[in-house]
Design goal:
Number of strands: 16
Number of helices: 7
Organism: Parvularcula mediterranea
Protein name: Succinylglutamate desuccinylase/aspartoacylase family protein
Helix content: 25-40%
Number of domains: 2
GO molecular function, one term: metal ion binding
Largest sheet: 12 strands, mixed
Keywords: Hydrolase, Metal-binding, Zinc
Cofactor: Zn(2+)
Strand content: 25-35%
């Protein structure tokens, strides 16, 4: 079992950090984030070691699939075994060669096909070191997300590796703002952990809003959905999020928010079946929406990205 990685050693000792992308093969945004990260001139002043693995699930990547050829989810297969399924062997190799030597990790993800995620950090915020990293990353919202059995995050943390999961954008798509937030966030964490010098001119990132709970609003009936809200919107309890109806507008049924919160994910498909997940709401404060708007403007003008844009 083989992995393609780039290892950058600094001239001085320091932490070992890995950054991984495409554990789900169709979540390609992490590949572009890592490509840009590898070209940042600030890495010339690196202390410690940076391990970059842009495509963990190469099998899913080349077939534009979330899963491995045997339909297993790699992110439910950790820590893996030396002998077993393809997923088990790949997970084992990644744990032994990448995670085990590392004290810090950032795993890059996007939403599934036909869904979109607001840039967000998911982490065990009960861990003080991890919470400090999540705050330094600088997204507008961070979720206190439970550790799932078999996930990279759970198994890395069990080995003492402080790890964040960055979620942004849609599978099989690049999102320029989400890419920029990802690159800048990783550099922020590297500065916070002493791997890079802090810049004199850079303002400290605004403290993200913390959410301990989120939920999906689901389709009450099958039909055609018209959405009235966008990612990053703040919604009040009872707010109208969209309506589902037949093709001629018959049997129109409203979809309303059960709680107030920030819109952190949504479906992009107008044709829905009863029970489909439509809108993902993080139960957090109203000012999170304003914080995300400010973050988008900041990465638009950041000189770090001069000449870098996907259109």
């Amino acid at each position: 079992m083989h992995l393609v990685a780039q290892v950058i050693h600094g001239k001085q000792d320091g932490p070992v950090m890995f950054v991984s992308g495409a554990i789900h093969g169709d979540e390609i945004i992490g590949v572009e984030i890592i490509r840009r990260l590898a070209e940042v001139k600030a890495l010339e002043k690196l202390k410690g070691t940076l391990i970059l693995v842009p495509v963990v699930n190469a099998y899913g990547f080349v077939t534009q699939s979330r899963y491995l050829p045997d339909r297993r989810d790699l992110n439910r297969s950790f820590p893996g075994t030396q002998r077993g399924s393809m997923a088990a062997q790949l997970a084992h190799t990644f744990m032994q060669e990448v995670v085990k030597p590392s004290s810090i990790g950032i795993d890059l993800h996007s939403a599934a096909v036909h869904r979109d995620n607001l840039p967000q950090i998911r982490a065990d915020l009960g861990n003080e070191e991890v919470e400090a990293m999540a705050t330094a990353f600088g997204t507008s919202v961070m979720l206190d997300a439970r550790l799932r059995d078999g996930s990279l995050r759970a198994e890395a943390q069990a080995l003492g590796c402080d790890i964040l999961l960055y979620e942004a954008g849609e599978a099989l798509r690049f999102d320029e703002t989400a890419i920029r937030i990802g690159v800048r966030g990783i550099l922020n964490v590297m500065r916070q952990r002493g791997m890079l010098p802090r810049t004199k001119t850079q303002k400290p990132p605004a403290k993200p809003l913390r959410s301990g709970q989120s939920h999906w609003e689901r389709a009450p009936i099958s039909g055609i959905m018209r959405a009235y809200v966008s990612l990053g919107d703040y919604v009040e309890e009872g707010a109208l999020l969209g309506v589902v109806s037949g093709p001629l507008g018959e049997e129109e049924t409203e979809v309303r928010a059960r709680t107030e919160g920030l819109m952190i994910g949504r479906t992009n498909l107008p044709i829905v079946n009863r029970g489909d997940a439509l809108f993902h709401i993080a139960e957090t404060a109203k000012k999170a929406a304003a914080a995300h708007d400010a973050l988008e403007k900041a990465v638009e003008v950041d000189p770090l990205f001069d000449g870098e844009e996907i259109v």
